[in-house]
């Protein structure tokens, strides 16, 4: 009970973001239970045959798979922090659109240019959300300095890490996610 005698209740404030986090959790549990077999089958994108229908499914579902708990928790922390604010502002359908475009864009670039690299995880979506969040104060005819700073710092860090740090992280998917978030932020906020 609160001070004024009313009870506090838990609300479902962000159904799309929460559903995504739960689906990713389920994919993680499923991958653990199958000894790592479901990630390559359903939740990882790589250069597989275009005759395989799962190739097209994985273009979108790779964002639901994660390589381990640290990977999952790191991505979900950002998604659960930024996602509800974005979902409140843009509505669930737009957030699904941002997630789907990010998933498709990162998987296509990976499929076309990096034949020997498998990709999984929601970090592209994280960076799409980061850049999309910086557009929330956007007004017609103006570009907030925060958008410029976030873009420069973010892209600079990803380029640096992509060139000089060997950490098995797909910096390109971060950059693509950031580009998707920037473009969607501009489109959605110019109206």
SSE topology sketch:
Elements: H1 15-33, H2 38-42, H3 53-61, H4 69-90, H5 92-113, H6 123-134, H7 145-164, H8 171-189
* Average pLDDT number: 87
CATH class designation: Mainly Alpha
Spans of at least 5 consecutive residues with low confidence: none
**Morphology call:** globular
Structural class: mainly alpha
**CATH topological fold name:** Rhomboid-like fold
Helical content stands at 55-70%
Distance between the termini: 43 Å
Strand coverage percent: under 5%
Largest sheet: none
Radius of gyration: 18 Å
Total separate domains: 1
User: What's the order of the H and E elements?
Assistant: HHHHHHHH
CATH superfamily: Rhomboid-like
Short summary:
Helices cover 67% and strands 0% of the residues.
Structural overview:
- With 191 residues, this protein is mainly α.
- The protein has a single domain, classed as Rhomboid-like (Rhomboid-like fold, Up-down Bundle), CATH 1.20.1540.10.
- Helix content is 67%, strand content 0%.
- It has eight helices and no strands.
- Helix 4 packs across helix 5, helix 5 packs across helix 6 and helix 6 packs parallel to helix 8.
- The radius of gyration is 18 Å and the shape is globular.
- The termini are far apart.
- The relative contact order is 0.13.
- The model has no long low-confidence stretch (mean pLDDT 87).
């Amino acid at each position: 009970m609160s001070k004024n005698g009313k009870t506090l209740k838990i609300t479902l404030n962000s159904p799309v973001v929460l559903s995504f986090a739960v689906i990713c959790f389920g994919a993680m549990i499923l991958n653990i239970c199958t000894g790592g077999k479901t990630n390559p089958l359903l939740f990882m994108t790589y250069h597989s045959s275009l005759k395989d229908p799962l190739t097209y499914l994985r273009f979108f579902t790779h964002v639901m798979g994660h390589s381990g708990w640290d990977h999952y928790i790191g991505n979900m922390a950002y998604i659960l922090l930024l996602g509800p604010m974005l979902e409140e502002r843009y509505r669930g359908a737009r957030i699904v659109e941002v997630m789907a475009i990010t998933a498709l864009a990162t998987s296509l670039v990976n499929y076309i240019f990096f034949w020997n690299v498998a990709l999984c995880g929601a970090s592209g979506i994280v960076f799409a959300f980061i850049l999309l969040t910086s557009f929330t104060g956007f007004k017609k005819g103006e570009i907030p300095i925060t958008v410029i700073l976030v873009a420069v710092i973010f892209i600079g860090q990803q380029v640096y890490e992509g060139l000089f740090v060997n950490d098995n992280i797909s910096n390109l998917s971060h950059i693509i996610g950031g580009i998707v978030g920037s473009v969607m932020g501009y489109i959605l906020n110019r109206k």
